[in-house]
């Protein structure tokens, strides 16, 4: 079966090479027809009538088996394209879901950072307020320390007198 299909493809390619240029790249085959305008006129002319513009050559008959092979290959290509599109669709959905997850995580992180910064600022203001209160409460300490030194000096003099 496979050898028959390859033989039909080879026969079709040989016939096409007589009528134009055949280019092959891997599994892809391209055909560029010679005298395309004349061929279009020939295809529109009724059977049995010579085409306008002269020329007595006719288009060679196409093998029905080759046409069936082309139809089968076109079906395979269509199925492969459908599967490729499904895979691309699934991949895009996965990437989109991942992107949404990253954006949500980033948003949550930014919100959390904002809240943490707000709490830190409030704590810093509270600390500054407490330090100011402590500073105000400690203002009498230098005067008290001076009084204690004076008292200590007086005690030392009294001790010196008592001895």
Automatic annotation (TrEMBL):
One of its GO terms (cellular component) is BORC complex. Residues 60-159 form the BLOC-1-related complex subunit 6 C-terminal helix domain. InterPro entries: BORCS6, BORCS6_C. One of its GO terms (biological process) is lysosome localization. Pfam families: BORCS6 (PF10157). This is BORC6 protein. It comes from Callaeas wilsoni (North Island kokako).
